[in-house]
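re: ur question from earlier - yeah i can do the single chain one, its not a big deal. heres the input i used so u can compare w yours
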Amino acid sequence: MNLRTELPTAENSSNFNAVADAVTKAGTTLENLKAAVTGETGASAKYSAFAKAAKEQGFDQLARLWEATSAAEQIHINLEASLVEAEDPSYVRPTAEAPAPEAIDLNLIASANGEIFETSDMYPTFIKKAQEEGHAKAVKVFTRAKLAEAVHAEKYLEAYNNIDAADDDAYYLCPGCGYIHKGDDFEKCPICGVPKAKFQRF
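and the output i got, formated as tokens:
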């Protein structure tokens, strides 16, 4: 993801449309926040299981990518759940069972597909509803998650295409929005502006 002169938002960006065959049905923004937490919880558990399988099979760099994205989903969970808890103090955060991993290449495709769904279907639908309800905090949280998920999908497809030619570049995770950068050739997050020094290295 390239740096822009201004940080991307739902208002100044051209990639916030939901796909024509979107399956996400919007509820209230509070309901959508809860649904997002549930989805991200499942994704985090899945990526953690995929990371373990990759490590066991000697795909160390792929393991680091899944570890980074699992941690990224935890960032999204915390951002979204904090908004839920502000409106519903009795809210209990969900848990999720991890699916059984398949072959490494299929795990990469499944991961990319999940991220593409979130960035092109789920989050655009939730953002539109939050805009309609005037819920600016939810718009911001959903927007940052949506943009980060698109980058995650890109990283999974890159890993898929280079599965047998992996390198040793590290992955860096933004603590503000879950953006992941491969390699150390950056200065700050292109989504939320957090400086490189605060990123977590995988």
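Strands lie at 171-173, 180-182, 200-201. not sure if urs matches, ping me
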